[in-house]
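ugh ok fine here u go
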Amino acid sequence: MHSKSYADNLLLRALTEEDRRQLVPSLTQVELRTRAVVAEPYTTLQYVYFPHQAIVSLVTVMSDGASVAIANVGNEGLIGCGGLLQVKSIPYRAVVKVPGRASRIAIKRLKEIFDERVTVRREVLRYLHSLMTQIAQAAVCSRFHSIEQRIARCILSSRDRMHKNSFSYTQEFLAQMLGADRSSITLAAGALRRAGFIEYKRGTITILDPEGL
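structure:
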């Protein structure tokens, strides 16, 4: 792995030089494709992923197959941090929402570094706190916000991480991420389009008015 490729992930960038000397040789760069599943719920984790350009959604899957995204992970964090906390799995499906590169490391190796180095533990636990905050916010959003507001939150969070205004999100995919039926997504996206906040063509959402959203 190139010595500077870690810089695309803010969590890796926040580590000390000595931390990175321990970690970087064990990282492998991978390409994450849209809708690829990098972790299944309650399945033993093999790897941890540090996204660079990719965004991965943590999705709760119900017994009837319905699903809803409860958090997103971009270049600010990592997927699989539960495996560092004395458990072998996470209760969510991790699905690639926006494709792109990521750094991957065997969870066994990262656990060794996590246990040995206080500064690595500090940064990972700080990130875990922010992830818990995001999950709590998602619970509030799902209970009290309209579907239009939830779509706005979904695409604005993507914009914040990717620094671009267009995303290939089909109505079916948004319905799966937001735990809504497709007809509700169609109506809500239409309302946002008529308000001049977005353009939605052929499965691509383009943000026209971020302040309005």
